[in-house]
Every structure is written in C-alpha cells, then in structure tokens.
Design goal:
The chain is an alpha+beta fold and 256 residues long. It has 5 helices and 15 strands. The termini are far apart. The chain binds magnesium ion (MG) (2 copies).
C-alpha cells in the first residue's frame, strides 16, 4: 500500500532529507586520495548523531555501517572498510538514510576522488542528469513508469546501462515503502503519482553492461559484472502539483 503524507509530515521529511544532504557534504569534505572508506563512515555517523539523527542503514537487516560507500565498480551497498583506501581517479558513491524526529530522508551522491578521467566525469554527469530528468516526472497525474522511462532513455542514449536488480522506493515513515521506482519502464504504466506521495529516485548507472553481482561473502556489495565503474545519485522528492518538490539537496555538496 502506498502511504500518503500530510503537508506537515512532508516538512518533517524535508528536515530529515536536508540533514542527509549536509551529512553527504560533510563526508565530501573529507574525500581525498589515501583515506579509507571506514574513516568516511565514522565522519558521517558522528555528524548524524551530533545533529540528533539516527543512521538507519546501521543494523538494517544486519548492515554493519552508517553509510553505504561504493567505490568504482561497486554500484551500491558497499560496506565501509579499513582496508579500502581511496585513490586518485576513483569515484566514490555515498548513500545515507537518516531518521530525524520520526521521519526518514534518503539521498546519495557520487564524488570524484582527486583528478578523475573525462570518461568518469561523463558517467557521473549523465547519471545526475538522468536523476533530474526522472525527478521532472514527479508531478501529480504522471505514473511511476514515466520516471523510469525518463531515466532509462537518457542513460541508454548516452551509451550506458541502468541496473535492473535494485530500484528507488517510497520513503518517509520508513526507509523502504511502496511503490518500487525502477530506473527503467514504459511511459503511462505503473502506479499513479498522487499528492502526498514521497519517493526516492535513484538511478544506478553502469558504464558498461547492466549486469551486476552480489558478494557471497558479505551478502551486500553489489558490483558490475564487467568490472567497469558505476555511478549513483539519489534524491527524496514529494510529488508536486506542477513541479516536483525535491526534499533533499546537493547545494551544500556542490558549494564546497
Ligand atoms: Mg539511499
Ligand atoms: Mg534509496
């Protein structure tokens, strides 16, 4: 069942989602060659707790860390690790879910580490463009398939592929609610977008083929099968009457 939120509740979700954006910016300030993903997780967790938030990934179905931190060919759900050191030219995706005063925000950003190649920059740019194209469909009267179609079309037009095994989702009371918001689809299909719906749109884009594998050792890490890099951007958004009301923000990340 899709749970609709009141305007007051949407403002509470906005507060939580903005804290996610501030957390990503704080983590971003520490991203440089030579730091470990575990160090970045500690920075993020401390910032969340200092701001009275609860890092919801920690303990979710046994996930051990506050943030998902995914480097290069790891698409999503990378587990922060003391032996993974960032290198010049890597990309690192940081995904953060916070509960604040009972409401949940979810956002993710892929950062360059040091100087990255032109092709890595292009992958990140196209993925972020796909996110905003998907978000542009988040208005009353459209359908969930319109979002997926907009994302997929832009990604494939640029020679990349979208991951099918994982998708966006409803959010706000809990980390994952109905409906699923796939990054592929057909226009005019799927659940109708209504006033009060809050969803997370999160394109996961592979430079090479769309195929992914899940780690048998940790049960979480999702990587590209061909070893090529992936990127991932995510916003929490409330369905708007004329335009989407994007609740999370990259402003602080990009003004750093
Ligand atoms: Mg997320
Ligand atoms: Mg999400």
């Amino acid at each position: 069942m899709i749970l609709l939120k009141t305007p007051t509740e949407i403002e509470m979700i906005r507060k939580s989602a903005l804290l996610v954006g501030r957390t990503l910016a704080e983590v971003g300030r520490h991203i440089r060659p030579g730091v470990t993903t575990l160090f970045l997780d500690q920075i993020g967790e401390q910032f969340i707790r200092d701001n009275k938030g609860i890092p919801l990934c920690k303990g979710f179905e046994g996930f051990p860390s506050a943030l998902c931190i995914s480097v290069n060919d790891v698409v999503v759900h990378g587990i922060p690790n003391k032996s993974v050191y960032l290198k010049d030219g890597d990309n690192v995706s940081v995904d953060c879910v916070i509960e604040l005063d009972g409401f949940v925000g979810d956002s993710a950003y892929t950062f360059p580490v040091g100087e990255v190649s032109e092709e890595m920059k292009r992958l990140m740019r196209v993925t972020k463009e796909a996110l905003y194209l998907g978000l542009s469909k988040c208005v009353i009267g459209n359908r969930v398939g319109d979002i997926g179609y907009a994302v997929q079309r832009h990604v494939e037009k640029n020679g990349y592929s979208v991951v099918r095994e994982l998708c966006g989702h409803g959010v706000g009371y809990k980390m994952h609610e109905s409906p699923n918001v796939c990054n592929y689809g057909k226009p005019g299909t799927g659940p109708l977008l209504k006033e009060g719906m809050v969803i997370a749109v999160e394109p996961m884009v592979n430079m090479g083929s769309r195929n992914v594998k899940f780690s048998k050792e940790d049960g979480w890490t999702c990587s590209t099968r061909d070893g090529k890099p992936a990127a991932h951007y995510e916003h929490t958004v409330a369905i708007g009457e004329k335009e989407p009301d994007i609740l999370s923000s990259f402003a602080e990340i990009e003004n750093n």
